[in-house]
């Protein structure tokens, strides 16, 4: 059985300026098929909160179309996502809605991959081994994103084996990933599964803990795991 | 009881400052090198005393006089023990640009976690090497080009055109001018205020470098 634990919390910089949380996440599972998305709207763009939530919805709509055919590639999914995002924004200019995007997908046709545009972190844990998706780094607060000039080559795409029992996926926005070290990821995932997910109210507990994290930036955590 | 916060890295994110300092022979006259040494030492002391900062302020000094050298490797300002620079030789500014670009390209030196670095260029003369290609390499490097840039021209003989080329399309592309040695100190106080302000701000990556300094007293 697949489980999910996720939340987004607003950063202090946005609270102080009265701006909304610009992070967004989405998870949906349908038997063995599933999609997880984490998006981080760019702080400098006025409608990036809309951009990030729309990117999550657009990814879901693109996934629904893509997973019904066995012939599509991950690149085809990206193309669908990009077009759907632009269409769903309607009159809002994409440049005002710029957002990063990390997507994890698995479907009934034995396809499984991660795709990432811009900042954020994707990790897969198998036993004690950690796979860190090698996104293209855009340092010092500069990033690629939907709504910013980019090509398909700016997406980093990696095909993965299907998620097995006991394995987990952790997706983070940079408000969290930049304060974490890879060495602690395995024990962090174990803590989330053993402690937070077993709380009386896991989402509230996670939100409280992320609020306590500190830092100016919005923070999003999405954990997916298949019970052993 | 364990909490999510216990997994948070205790290491502050670095905020690198790279100073390209002209120590050619001409800097030895009119007390310029003495003023520069004093100003840098004062800047290091001020930055080391800063508290309540989000970032670990790091400094590297690349000198160019006779040849380009790394006088101070990139390190925490708290751990720098200052040694005065001496002035002699020509002005191989291109060599300094090359060393700076190499530093940016080395992720072990300037890590991906670092906040946006500041590059400061100080010179009183004209480059004596073929600086053009090295400057273009710096300005087009994926990482080095993203740094904040500031420039100071010392005295009338400084090549302001080169300093302006260095600033290119930087947020504040004004070359500061110090026509007397004491103004060197003023400039470094400005750099100190700028770095200090960023290190305490909500987002040290963002913001106009001088917008943090409300009462800028500088003669244009």
Count, helices of chain B: 5
What CATH calls the topology of chain A is Phosphatase 2c, domain 1
CATH architecture of chain A: 4-Layer Sandwich
Q: Got a strand count of chain B?
A: 6
| Secondary structure category of chain A | alpha+beta
Number of domains of chain A: 1
What fraction of residues of chain B sit in β-strands?
15-25%
Structural commentary:
The complex is a heterodimer of chains A (228) and B (220). Chain A is α+β, with helices and mostly antiparallel strands. Chain A has a single domain, classed as PPM-type phosphatase domain (Phosphatase 2c, domain 1, 4-Layer Sandwich), CATH 3.60.40.10. Chain A has six helices and ten strands. Chain A has helices at residues 12-17, 48-67, 74-88, 174-177, 185-196, 202-211, and strands at 2-9, 23-30, 33-40, 101-106, 112-117, 121-126, 129-132, 156-159, 168-172, 219-226. Chain A has a five-stranded antiparallel β-sheet. Chain A has a five-stranded antiparallel β-sheet with strand order 2-3-4-5-8, with helices on one face. In chain A, strand 6 and strand 7 form a beta hairpin. Chain A is globular. In chain A, 46% of the residues are buried. Chain B is an alpha/beta fold and 220 residues long. Chain B has a single domain, classed as 3-Layer(aba) Sandwich (Rossmann fold). Helices cover 31% and strands 22% of the residues of chain B. Chain B has helices at residues 32-49, 93-105, 131-140, 160-167, 182-200; strands spanning 13-22, 55-65, 67-76, 118-123, 148-154, 175-178. Chain B has a six-stranded mixed β-sheet. The termini of chain B are far apart. The model of chain B is unreliable at 211-216 (pLDDT under 50). Classes of the chains: A alpha+beta (228), B alpha/beta (220). The interface between A and B is medium-sized, with 29 and 22 residues.
């Amino acid at each position: 059985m697949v489980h999910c634990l996720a939340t987004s919390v607003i950063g202090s910089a946005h609270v102080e300026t009265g701006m909304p949380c610009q992070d967004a996440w989405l998870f949906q599972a349908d038997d063995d098929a599933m999609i997880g998305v984490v998006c981080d709207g760019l702080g400098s763009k006025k409608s990036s909160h809309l951009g990030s939530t729309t990117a999550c919805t657009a990814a879901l709509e693109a996934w629904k179309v893509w997973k019904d055919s066995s012939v599509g590639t991950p690149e085809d999914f990206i193309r669908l996502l990009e077009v759907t995002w632009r269409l769903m924004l309607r009159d809002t200019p994409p440049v005002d809605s710029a957002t990063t995007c990390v997507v994890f997908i698995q479907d009934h046709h034995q396809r499984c991959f991660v795709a990432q545009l811009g900042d954020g972190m994707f990790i897969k844990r198998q036993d004690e081994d950690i796979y860190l998706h090698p996104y293209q780094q855009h340092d010092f607060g500069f990033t690629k994103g939907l709504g910013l000039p980019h090509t398909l080559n700016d997406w980093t795409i990696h095909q993965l084996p299907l998620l097995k029992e006991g394995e987990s996926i952790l997706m983070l926005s940079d408000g969290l990933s930049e304060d974490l070290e890879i060495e602690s990821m395995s024990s962090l995932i174990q803590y989330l599964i053993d402690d937070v997910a077993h709380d009386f109210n896991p989402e509230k507990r996670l939100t409280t803990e992320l609020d306590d994290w500190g830092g100016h930036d919005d923070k999003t955590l999405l954990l997916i795991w298949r019970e052993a | 009881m364990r909490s999510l916060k216990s997994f948070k890295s205790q290491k502050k994110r670095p905020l690198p400052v790279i100073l390209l300092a002209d120590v050619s022979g001409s800097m030895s006259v009119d007390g310029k090198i003495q003023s520069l040494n004093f100003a840098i030492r004062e800047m290091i002391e001020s930055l080391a005393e800063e508290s309540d900062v989000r970032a670990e302020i790091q400094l590297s000094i690349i000198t160019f006089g006779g040849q380009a050298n790394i006088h101070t490797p990139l390190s925490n300002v708290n751990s720098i023990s200052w040694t005065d620079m001496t002035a002699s030789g020509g002005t191989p500014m291109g060599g300094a640009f090359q060393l700076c670009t190499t530093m940016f390209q080395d992720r072990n030196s300037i890590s991906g976690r670092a906040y946006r670095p500041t590059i400061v260029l100080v010179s009183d003369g004209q480059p004596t090497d073929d600086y053009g290609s090295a400057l273009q390499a710096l300005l087009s490097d994926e990482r080095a080009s993203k740094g904040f840039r500031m420039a100071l021209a010392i005295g009338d003989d400084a090549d302001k055109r080169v300093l302006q080329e260095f600033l290119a399309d930087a947020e504040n592309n004004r070359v500061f001018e110090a026509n007397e040695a004491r103004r060197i100190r003023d400039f470094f106080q400005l750099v100190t205020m700028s770095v200090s302000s960023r290190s305490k701000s909500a987002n040290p990556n963002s913001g106009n470098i001088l917008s943090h300094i409300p009462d800028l007293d500088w003669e244009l």
